Amino acid sequence: MDQSQVHPVVHAAAIAFGYVFMHPFDDGNGRIHRFLIHNILARRDFTPDGLIFPISAATLNNLDAYDVTKRAIQEIIDMPDQRIDLFIRFCPQNDGVISPKKCKSHFSELTDDEIEKMQTTIQKTYY
After folding, report:
1. How many domains does the chain have?
2. Which whole-number Å values give the CA distances from 95 to 51, 61, 91, 92, 123, in the listed order?
């Protein structure tokens, strides 16, 4: 890994994308995702010692939109914040809709109508 011919940013992005795509855990995926980016960039000597990129800055820039979307989804269905966050993060990975695989594996208890309303809420806010 340390001697790769691939640019360090491309390397970190590819690994991080693959990890987020798998989304193996119910909680902690974001933290591990950020760790992978920082670890690869540091091991490849791309960043100076001690420098940490604000990977979550894009999320913070859209915090108001996230809050509006979260409240709107809470009006559709009573669901823990962690699961709403997961739904909101999954949809942009598939052009504003949750993939059938992720829907089945993470939200099988939801009705088609609830899913449609939640996706529409996200699309109105982010697209």
Report:
1. 2
2. 33, 20, 7, 5, 9
Tokens 């933290």 locate to 31
Q: How far apart are CA 79 and CA 74, in angstroms?
A: 7
DSSP state of 92: G
- Across the range 87-108, mean pLDDT stands at 89
H-type alpha helices, the chain: 8-22, 29-43, 57-61, 63-76, 81-90, 100-106, 112-126
- Do residue 47 and residue 65 come from a single domain? no
Q: Are residues 73 and 99 in the same domain?
A: yes
The predicted model scores a pTM of 0.56
What are the structure tokens assigned to 123, written together? 């699309």
Q: What's the pLDDT tens digit per position in 39-59?
A: 898 889 888 877 777 665 555
